[in-house]
């Protein structure tokens, strides 16, 4: 079902929501320039595993392009504009209003998910698909140092994703080395972000099993 909610700085966020009576929810944060629909196959599977699911368009993407009387376009964003997307995740967390919330992010969405977790100790588990070291000013190496030993992170990276072999895997390893509890899944693939799930259906189930563990 389509839903809408507002951020603290008055951006109208449009999402797709799979409701559940469960007290657990998964929030899906897409990569750039993708939209909420990039998560639909995975969201369908997650919803069959007793999670409420919310995928949404980050500000300036898809249908989330209105802030009061202003139109937003991510192509025109400076780094500070991208950083404000953290408020989109905060609004999504408030919208689902569940006892246990997991966040799964792809590419810039992964950096944002890690940043959000670092500021919110109640977020115990997140999944990062192809995170970057410093993407649009979101510095994952600096952020990773603020993750507590009560929080867990699952990282997936493609060995052939990037300008040269192992570029993204090396970046992901650098991030993983700073985290207290991390599982790093290295995949023989050139796919990036949520496209890793399309090329590797097994990865979807592995993530679900990890969330349930």
Low-confidence stretches: none
| Secondary-structure element series | EEEHEEEHHEHEEEHEHEHH
CATH superfamily heading = Alpha/Beta hydrolase fold, catalytic domain
The major pleated sheet works out as: 10 strands, mixed
Specify the CATH class: Alpha Beta
CATH architecture descriptor name:
3-Layer(aba) Sandwich
Distance between the termini: 28 Å
Helix content: 25-40%
Number of domains: 1
Beta-strand residue percentage: 25-35%
Structural class: alpha/beta
Question: Can you offer a commentary on this structure?
Answer:
With 213 residues, the protein is of the alpha/beta class. The protein has a single domain, classed as 3-Layer(aba) Sandwich (Rossmann fold), CATH 3.40.50. The chain contains eight helices and twelve strands. The chain has helices at 40-47, 79-83, 86-96, 108-119, 140-144, 167-176, 195-199, 201-212; strands spanning 2-6, 11-18, 24-29, 52-56, 66-67, 70-71, 100-106, 125-129, 134-135, 138-139, 152-158, 182-187. The strands form two sheets. Strands 1, 2, 3, 4, 5, 6, 7, 8, 11 and 12 form a ten-stranded mixed β-sheet that branches. Strand 9 (134-135) and strand 10 (138-139) form a beta hairpin. The chain is globular. It starts with a strand and ends with a helix.
Write a brief structural summary.
About 30% of the residues lie in helices and about 25% in strands. The protein is an alpha/beta fold and about 210 residues long. It has a single domain, classed as 3-Layer(aba) Sandwich (Rossmann fold).
């Amino acid at each position: 079902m389509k839903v809408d909610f507002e951020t603290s700085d008055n951006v109208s966020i449009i999402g797709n929501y799979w409701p559940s009576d469960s007290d657990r929810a998964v929030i899906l944060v897409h990569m750039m320039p993708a939209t909420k629909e990039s998560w639909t196959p995975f969201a369908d599977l997650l919803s069959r595993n007793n999670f409420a699911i919310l995928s949404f368009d980050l500000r300036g993407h898809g249908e989330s392009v209105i802030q009061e009387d202003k139109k937003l376009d991510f192509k025109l964003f400076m780094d500070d504009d991208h950083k404000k997307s953290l408020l989109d995740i905060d609004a999504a967390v408030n919208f689902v209003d569940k006892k246990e919330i997991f966040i799964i992010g792809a590419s810039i969405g992964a950096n944002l998910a890690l940043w959000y977790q670092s500021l919110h100790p109640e977020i115990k588990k997140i999944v990062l698909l192809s995170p970057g070291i410093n993407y649009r000013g979101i510095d994952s190496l600096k952020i990773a140092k603020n993750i507590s030993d009560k929080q867990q992170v699952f990282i997936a990276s493609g060995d052939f994703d990037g300008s040269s072999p192992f570029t993204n895997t090396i970046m992901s390893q650098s991030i993983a080395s700073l985290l207290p509890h991390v599982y790093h899944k290295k995949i023989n693939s050139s796919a990036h972000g949520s496209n890793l799930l399309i090329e590797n259906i097994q990865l979807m189930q592995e993530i679900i099993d990890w969330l349930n563990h």
